[in-house]
């Protein structure tokens, strides 16, 4: 059965059991401070497990794009080395939100695997949680055990410990005991020799876990204790690639049709052969795996970058490039060429790959290119480090510097050192690494208390589209502490006019006022688990009762002007540049807006003007805000609404319209485009290959902008003596300046000529050398000319000139070539040594060299010290 059918069979099976099939959530998570990437199918349903929101369907099934490269679930270092862990993989899942529980979950999993997919029952093992004696004092999962016993012989049921059979999403949050299903795909002979039961959970590549059925029934609190969840849920996850391995009768995920086309292509591009050499095989697996992670992230709108999620993606790509570089001899970008095959194999299930193919290729190619350049530079630096090493061991802190500042991979450093007969001080490297980790960890660490619940009010409705103030009650609050922001409080209200940061728009600020006038400022608003959380520096004195919640209207108004202008800008770019323009990121602040979009060339001045004019025409056109809330996705798409890749949309959406601009959007907007006043582009530039960025301003920021510009203009006119045409006046000045420079140069030449005669008279003879050390007033070029002219027709000259230019010192040493050879003198060495008097350094050739330094006061000392070389 091919992989496409396997995916379909899974989803259809659960559809037949009353589940709704939903699309995968994006792999890159936006607007969640606790998680960068989806690492399990359940992430997108967290809010349901926690009881914050109720799902429309109590039974759901899907295949979820997951990435396990950071945080609690990190498989990166395994990937490629083994045959069954990936960075990005698909997790097939079925969910029950307070609906069915263990009985159905277990029976259906078994039915699907053995009846429908016909996996041999004798190759399957299941595990059950054995209970724990630690602080949690959890009971053995007798319920699951009894259910399994009805369908599986008891010797195939394995009791598992807390590490394997108690699933937790993170340090806090929903959790519960689980039952895993393992499959033994070894040969018959091997099975007879060693029992499969003994290999379960023992990292055997042919006895692997394929499915985990999690029975969510607890919430892990901040203090580490468990509390029962209000309802019990089922959360299952099956590795799609591993299932394909079993059903396609192969012994590695990479031998399934999910990966073989990619591996073929890598073989063709790099001339490597898979299956002949262990190191080459690992490299090929790493590349086949990592291109998926990178391509899916880019399709989700996350480009490689220097921070956060983007940095994780950059590191994954670099890991693949360096495996290719080291083991496959790939010295040119090549990974981008895999995008074609990847879209052919996965584009059906994930259409975003097709639509974003060009972008994926551009971005990957550029990343590869720049990293290969880094590798080249790193090789040179490493060479220097080796040369300056006193013994055969290279200092760990130096290797760390190479890794940390230049991104030069440590394993490559170790490899190259090994080849040259050197070794790496690994302990030193490890120490430097740990210290840096500690520094960055303590900077980002946040500790959160458990919520203090005041009222059980599940409404928590956002009313900020229609109101900027309302009476609210505090439903819960907690204290959080971080190094960055210190102590803060989070507050949740029963309803709120505050907009939570999302869709690029910043969160509202404002204040909360109690009946007796106690005021607490709200400094930010964010979403957590789909709940609007308000941030404050302190809590109100009395938490009960009703408060007036007031949004800072001015900030909101400015932000809204920028948000609506962003929509108009998006429309303008598609009109002016073409419909290939897609939004790749946006930030809507109160002071400015930033918009990233796909386009292959720098915008011309004319295009920028057209874009500005287009937007301003719509502002002057007084287009009213039209909105439809809670309409089905399809209705909005039929109405021409633009949806974004990598964005998570619910079943129903909100459609926002200004004239012909129609977008799916949850943000807040002006009531009429006239409220934007005016739109002005401040800058346009590249963020990555094929991605441009525009920064622009609207509303009163434009006024400030013109005011500032105007003031500068008046000031310029003023310094130009009230010039009527300042541009002409500046051009005149520039011309005059060029003319003056020419005159100075010619005057200096004359001066040097005269000087030559004068200085020749000052030469002293010392030990058969014509010598002069003197401070003179010429620039570097003048001194050089002078020295060489004085040296003409002489073979016994030794000059040292010192000069002070713009507060800096310069020493120039000239020695006739013959003299340098006979007396074994070297101008380069001499200036380097004399350089210490002027706090600087330099070098050059044996017959002419210069040194610059920041201490002109030391020139005289240098002129004195040089005499030592004549002895
Ligand atoms: P393992 O012990 O093999 O790493 P896990 O305990 O981390 O697995 P779960 O967190 O229970 O796995 O995830 C559910 C399923 O997802 C697993 O049964 C497995 O089939 C699959 N899976 C987990 N991690 C990966 C990965 N890195 N690559 C591919 N599939 C995976
Ligand atoms: Mg794991």
Automatic annotation (TrEMBL):
User: Which InterPro entries does the record associate with it?
Assistant: aa-tRNA-synth_II/BPL/LPL, Ala-tRNA-lgiase_IIc, Ala-tRNA-ligase_IIc_anticod-bd, Ala-tRNA-synth_IIc_core, Ala-tRNA-synth_IIc_N, Ala-tRNA_ligase, Ala_tRNA_ligase_euk/bac, DHHA1_dom
Show the coiled coil region(s): 730-765
- Tell me yes or no: is Oxidoreductase among this UniProt entry's keywords: no
**EC number assigned by the record:** 6.1.1.7
For activity, the cofactor(s) needed are: Zn(2+)
> How does the cofactor attach, per the note?
Binds 1 zinc ion per subunit.
Alphabetic keyword roster: Aminoacyl-tRNA synthetase, ATP-binding, Coiled coil, Cytoplasm, Ligase, Metal-binding, Nucleotide-binding, Protein biosynthesis, RNA-binding, tRNA-binding, Zinc
Q: Which residues bind Zn(2+)?
A: 563, 567, 665, 669
Checking SUPFAM superfamilies in the record gives: Class II aaRS and biotin synthetases, Putative anticodon-binding domain of alanyl-tRNA synthetase (AlaRS), ThrRS/AlaRS common domain, Translation proteins
The record's section on CDD domains has: AlaRS_core
Ranges for domain Alanyl-transfer RNA synthetases family profile come to: 1-708
Catalytic activity entry:
tRNA(Ala) + L-alanine + ATP = L-alanyl-tRNA(Ala) + AMP + diphosphate
Q: Which domain of life is it from?
A: Bacteria
Do you know which Gene3D superfamilies this protein is assigned to?
2.40.30.130, 3.10.310.40, 3.30.54.20, Bira Bifunctional Protein, Domain 2, Threonyl-trna Synthetase, Chain A, domain 2
Instruction: Give start-end of the signal peptide.
Output: none
Q: Where does this one sit in the cell?
A: Cytoplasm
Q: What does this protein do?
A: Catalyzes the attachment of alanine to tRNA(Ala) in a two-step reaction: alanine is first activated by ATP to form Ala-AMP and then transferred to the acceptor end of tRNA(Ala). Also edits incorrectly charged Ser-tRNA(Ala) and Gly-tRNA(Ala) via its editing domain.
The record's similarity note reads: Belongs to the class-II aminoacyl-tRNA synthetase family.
Protein name (Swiss-Prot/TrEMBL): Alanine--tRNA ligase
From what organism does this protein derive? Maribacter chungangensis
């Amino acid at each position: 059965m091919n992989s496409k059918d396997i995916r379909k069979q899974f989803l259809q099976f659960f559809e037949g059991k009353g589940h709704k099939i939903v699309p995968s959530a994006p792999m890159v998570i936006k607007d969640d401070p606790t998680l960068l990437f989806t690492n399990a199918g359940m992430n997108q349903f967290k809010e349901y497990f926690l009881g914050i929101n109720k799902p429309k369907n109590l039974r759901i099934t899907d295949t979820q794009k997951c990435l396990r490269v950071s945080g609690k679930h990190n498989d990166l270092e395994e990937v490629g080395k083994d045959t069954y862990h990936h960075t990005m993989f698909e997790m097939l899942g079925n969910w029950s939100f307070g609906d069915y529980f263990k009985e159905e979950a277990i029976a259906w999993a078994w039915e699907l695997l053995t009846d429908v997919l016909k996996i041999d029952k004798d190759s399957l093992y299941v595990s059950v949680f054995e209970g724990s004696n630690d602080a949690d004092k959890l009971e053995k999962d007798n319920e699951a055990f009894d259910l399994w016993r009805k369908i599986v012989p008891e010797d195939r049921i394995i009791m598992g410990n807390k590490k394997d059979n108690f699933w937790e999403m993170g340090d806090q949050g929903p959790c519960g005991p689980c039952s895993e299903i393992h499959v033994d795909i070894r040969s018959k002979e091997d099975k007879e020799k060693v029992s499969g039961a003994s290999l379960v959970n023992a990292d055997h590549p042919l006895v692997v876990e394929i499915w985990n059925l999690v029975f969510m029934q607890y919430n892990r609190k901040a203090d580490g204790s468990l509390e029962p969840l209000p309802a019990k849920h089922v959360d299952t996850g099956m590795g799609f690639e591993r299932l394909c391995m079993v059903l396609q009768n192969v012994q590695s995920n990479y031998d399934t049709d999910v990966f073989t086309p990619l591996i073929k292509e890598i073989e063709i591009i790099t001339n490597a052969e898979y299956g002949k050499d262990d190191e080459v095989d690992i490299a090929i697996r790493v590349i086949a795996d990592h291109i998926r992670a990178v391509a899916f992230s880019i399709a989700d709108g996350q480009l490689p970058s220097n921070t956060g999620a983007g940095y994780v993606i950059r590191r994954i790509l670099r890991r693949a490039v360096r495996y290719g570089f080291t083991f496959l001899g790939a010295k040119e970008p090549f990974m981008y060429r895999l995008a074609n095959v990847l879209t052919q194999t996965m584009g059906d299930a994930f259409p975003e790959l097709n639509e974003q193919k060009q972008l994926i290729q551009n971005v990957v190619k550029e990343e590869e290119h720049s990293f290969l350049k880094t590798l080249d530079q790193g090789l040179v630096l490493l060479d220097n480090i080796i040369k300056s090493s006193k013994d055969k061991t290279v200092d760990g802190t130096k290797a760390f510097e190479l890794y940390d500042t230049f991104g030069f991979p440590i394993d490559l450093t170790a490899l190259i050192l090994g080849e040259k007969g050197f070794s790496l001080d690994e302990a030193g490297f490890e120490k430097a690494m740990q210290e840096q980790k500690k520094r960055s960890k303590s900077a980002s660490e946040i500790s959160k208390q458990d919520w203090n619940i005041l009222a059980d009010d599940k409404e928590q409705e956002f009313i900020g589209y229609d109101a900027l103030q309302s009476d609210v009650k505090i439903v819960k609050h907690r204290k959080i502490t971080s190094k960055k922001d210190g102590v803060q409080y989070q507050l949740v209200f029963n309803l709120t006019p505050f907009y939570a940061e999302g869709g690029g728009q910043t969160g509202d600020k404002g204040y909360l006022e109690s009946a007796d006038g106690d005021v607490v400022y709200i400094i930010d608003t964010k979403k957590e688990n789909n709940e609007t959380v308000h941030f404050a520096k302190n809590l109100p004195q009395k938490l009960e009762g009703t408060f007036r919640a007031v949004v800072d209207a001015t900030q909101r108004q400015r932000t809204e002007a920028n948000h609506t202008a962003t929509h108009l800008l998006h429309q303008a770019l598609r009109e002016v540049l073409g419909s290939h323009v897609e939004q790749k990121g946006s930030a809507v602040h109160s002071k400015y807006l930033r918009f990233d979009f796909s386009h292959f060339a720098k915008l011309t001045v004319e295009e920028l003007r057209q874009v500005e004019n287009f937007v301003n025409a719509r502002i002057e056109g007084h287009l009213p805000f039209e909105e439809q809330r809670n309409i089905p996705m399809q209705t909005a798409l039929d109405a021409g609404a633009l949806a974004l890749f990598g964005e998570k949309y619910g079943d129903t959406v909100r459609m926002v319209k200004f004239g012909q601009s129609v977008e799916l959007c949850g943000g807040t907007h002006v009531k009429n485009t006239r409220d934007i006043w005016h739109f002005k582009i401040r800058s346009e530039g590249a963020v990555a290959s094929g991605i441009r960025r525009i920064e622009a301003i609207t509303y009163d920021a434009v006024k400030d902008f013109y005011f500032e510009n105007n003031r500068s203009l008046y000031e310029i006119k003023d310094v130009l003596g009230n010039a009527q045409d300042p541009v002409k006046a500046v051009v005149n000045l520039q011309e005059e300046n060029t003319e003056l420079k020419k005159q100075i140069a010619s005057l200096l030449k004359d001066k040097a000529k005269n000087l030559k005669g004068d200085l020749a008279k000052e030469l002293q003879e010392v030990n058969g050398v014509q010598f002069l050390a003197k401070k003179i007033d010429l620039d570097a070029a003048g001194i050089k000319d002078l020295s060489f002219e004085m040296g003409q027709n002489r073979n016994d000259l030794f000059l040292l000139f010192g000069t002070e230019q713009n507060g800096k010192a310069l020493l120039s040493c000239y020695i006739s070539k013959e003299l340098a050879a006979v007396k074994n003198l070297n101008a380069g060495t001499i200036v380097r040594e004399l350089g210490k008097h002027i706090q600087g350094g330099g070098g050059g050739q044996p017959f002419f060299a210069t040194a610059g330094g920041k201490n002109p006061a030391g020139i005289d000392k240098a002129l004195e010290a040089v005499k030592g070389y004549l002895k």
